[in-house]
């Protein structure tokens, strides 16, 4: 922060009362990144495949379970399907922290709304709130979402981009594996599919992402949202990537690691003699 | 031309008296002739044999070009080279080495020794010091004394004979396991050294483990065992995701 200065003239006074954002830290960070060998922290991004389809009276979402940090797999079985309300779920791709916090915030907002109005939240409400929030942050909150739910007006499926634009679609995919998944959905989607056929289709689409996109991998999670039951997450609906080989290593014998120093400190002194008094 | 000053032609040259003259940033042209095609390879020397293992995934960015592309080339009857980095440079380098070795054989009426090939690879790489082959090589074989030999290189020809080594996208993950299982670093209790089958098993296990955590390693693995009997190759499956 800059030091507090005495206002020089009315322009300074106006400036000091003007409010708004201060960008001095942005300038500082850009300077440090360019001049000094300091790198700004990088967020964990999940290269991802997520998709969703809308059928006659059901919405099905699906996601892979790999979370990456550059070329490394950070989590082999993470959850990318998020609860928002009993009848609304969302699949997320992008920055892991942003996704978790955005969806949790939306979950609490929807619960408060439900208690205030005594009605089930509607999908369009969630979409509007999310898109307004994401637009406000101008794309810096890295959430690419496939949002689905069933409310009083029926089943709905939406796609929301990090900058806040939304689409209402019968089927959609997002993330780095979205092209692979979309190839399957475009070829095989049909609105008259049964729930079982729908589950198989989204799983196949995610599998396309898992095998053909290096940012996606491991297992398939599926979420089925119906009018009667609400949403049900089928965790690890398919596990097509079990490890194929593991050698039998001999365990390290106890004492393999050298002990350099041993020191035991008594933190509590225990009195053994207890004197009983009448 | 579009209101911008052109330098070079006399009529457009800015005059000192022109108060509106501004310095223009020079136009920069970027040229990036290198690509990283990922993959991992490793080599372990035994007393009278050597084991080389590598995966067969060829990728770029987030996509897989092919799931079955070998990183290993046989150079002589008892020497192979495994190269990670950029595939096109590796192909060119291997082709060049093979041609040089044919010439060697014609001149000397015998195949080049692993030590000779190791030196030749170093000079070949340094020959392109200022436009290097973007390859990270592991050269393995059985030397003239019948001992297992592993050589590790950087992209411009610095090399060293080592008991075991690894290179490529998952090399940092591999090295830690080899340090513990082969060199037995920081271990005070002596445990028997791994035999031939044990090392082959270890290589298979290490590649499987790296395939779990490195996105550029996977699809399938190949193991080359070089000993007095010659070169034998085995293949095994890795995860496809």
TrEMBL record, chain A:
Molecular-function GO terms, alphabetical: threonine-type endopeptidase activity
EC class of the enzyme, as a word: hydrolase
InterPro entries: Ntn_hydrolases_N, Pept_T1A_subB, Proteasome_sua/b, Proteasome_suB-type
Gene Ontology, cellular component aspect: cytoplasm; nucleus; proteasome core complex
Enzyme Commission number(s): 3.4.25.1
Active-site residues, Swiss-Prot/TrEMBL: 48 (nucleophile)
Primary location group: nucleus
Keyword entries, A-Z: Cytoplasm, Hydrolase, Nucleus, Protease, Proteasome, Threonine protease
Catalyzed reactions: Cleavage of peptide bonds with very broad specificity
UniProt-annotated location(s): Nucleus
Keyword Cytoplasm: yes
Alphabetical list of PROSITE patterns matching this protein: PROTEASOME_BETA_2 (PS51476)
Xref: Gene3D superfamilies: Glutamine Phosphoribosylpyrophosphate, subunit 1, domain 1
Biological processes, Gene Ontology terms: proteolysis involved in protein catabolic process
Classification via Pfam families: Proteasome
Keyword Lipoprotein: no
Protein name: proteasome endopeptidase complex
Source organism (scientific name): Cladocopium goreaui
Automatic annotation (TrEMBL), chain B:
CDD domains (UniProt xref): proteasome_beta_type_1
Gene3D superfamilies to which the protein is assigned, alphabetical: Glutamine Phosphoribosylpyrophosphate, subunit 1, domain 1
Function: Component of the proteasome, a multicatalytic proteinase complex which is characterized by its ability to cleave peptides with Arg, Phe, Tyr, Leu, and Glu adjacent to the leaving group at neutral or slightly basic pH. The proteasome has an ATP-dependent proteolytic activity.
Similarity field: Belongs to the peptidase T1B family.
GO cellular component, one term: cytoplasm
GO BP term, example: proteolysis involved in protein catabolic process
Main location: cytoplasm
Domain of life: Eukaryota
Source organism: Cladocopium goreaui
Pfam families membership: Proteasome (PF00227)
Location in or out of the cell: Cytoplasm; Nucleus
UniProt keywords, alphabetically: Cytoplasm, Nucleus, Proteasome
UniProt subunit comment: Component of the proteasome complex.
SUPFAM superfamilies: N-terminal nucleophile aminohydrolases (Ntn hydrolases)
Annotated protein name in UniProt: Proteasome subunit beta
């Amino acid at each position: 922060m800059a030091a507090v200065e005495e206002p020089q003239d009315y322009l300074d006074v106006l400036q000091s009362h003007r409010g708004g954002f201060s960008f001095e830290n942005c300038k500082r960070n850009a300077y440090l990144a360019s001049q000094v060998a300091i790198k700004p922290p990088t967020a964990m991004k999940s290269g991802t495949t997520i998709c969703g389809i809308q059928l006659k009276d059901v919405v099905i979402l699906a996601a892979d379970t790999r979370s990456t940090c550059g070329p490394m797999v950070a989590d082999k079985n993470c959850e990318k399907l998020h609860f928002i309300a009993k009848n609304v779920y969302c699949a997320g791709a992008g920055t892991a922290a942003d996704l978790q916090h955005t969806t949790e915030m939306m979950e609490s907002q929807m619960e408060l709304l439900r208690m205030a109005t005594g009605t089930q939240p509607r999908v369009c409400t969630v979409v509007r709130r999310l898109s307004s929030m994401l637009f406000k942050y101008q794309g810096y909150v890295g959430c690419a979402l496939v949002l689905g739910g069933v409310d009083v007006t029926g089943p709905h499926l939406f796609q929301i981009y990090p900058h806040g634009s939304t689409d209402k679609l019968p089927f959609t995919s997002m993330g780095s594996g979205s092209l692979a998944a979309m190839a399957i959905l475009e070829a095989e989607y049909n609105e008259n599919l049964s729930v079982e056929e729908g589950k198989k289709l989204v799983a196949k689409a995610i599998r396309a992402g898992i095998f053909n996109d290096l940012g996606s991998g491991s297992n398939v999670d599926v979420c089925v949202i119906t009018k009667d039951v609400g949403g049900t997450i089928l965790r690890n609906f398919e596990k097509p990537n079990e490890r194929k080989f593991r050698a039998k290593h001999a365990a390290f014998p106890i004492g393999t690691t050298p002990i350099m120093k041993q020191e035991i400190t008594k933190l509590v002194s225990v009195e053994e003699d207890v004197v009983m008094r009448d | 031309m579009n209101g911008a000053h052109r330098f070079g032609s006399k009529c457009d040259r800015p005059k000192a008296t022109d108060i509106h003259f501004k310095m223009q940033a020079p136009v920069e042209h970027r040229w990036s002739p290198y690509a990283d095609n990922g993959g991992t390879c490793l080599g372990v020397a035994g007393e009278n044999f050597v084991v080389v293992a590598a995966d067969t995934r060829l990728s770029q960015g987030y996509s897989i070009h092919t799931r079955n592309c070998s990183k290993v080339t046989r150079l002589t009857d008892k020497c192979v080279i495994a190269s990670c980095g950029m595939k096109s440079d590796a192909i060119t380098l291997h082709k060049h080495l093979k041609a040089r070795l044919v010439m060697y054989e014609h001149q000397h009426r015998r195949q080049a020794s692993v030590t000779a090939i190791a030196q030749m690879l170093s000079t070949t790489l340094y020959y392109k010091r200022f436009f290097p082959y973007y390859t990270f090589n592991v050269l393995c074989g059985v030397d003239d004394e019948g001992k297992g030999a592993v050589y590790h290189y950087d992209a411009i020809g610095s090399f060293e004979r080592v008991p075991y080594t690894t290179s490529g996208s998952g090399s940092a993950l591999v090295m830690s396991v080899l340090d513990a299982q082969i060199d037995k670093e920081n271990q005070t209790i002596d445990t028997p050294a791994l035999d031939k089958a044990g090392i082959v098993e270890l290589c298979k296990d290490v590649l499987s483990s790296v395939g779990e955590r490195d996105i550029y390693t996977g699809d399938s693995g190949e193991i080359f065992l070089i000993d007095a009997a010659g070169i034998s190759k085995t293949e095994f499956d890795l995860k496809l995701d």
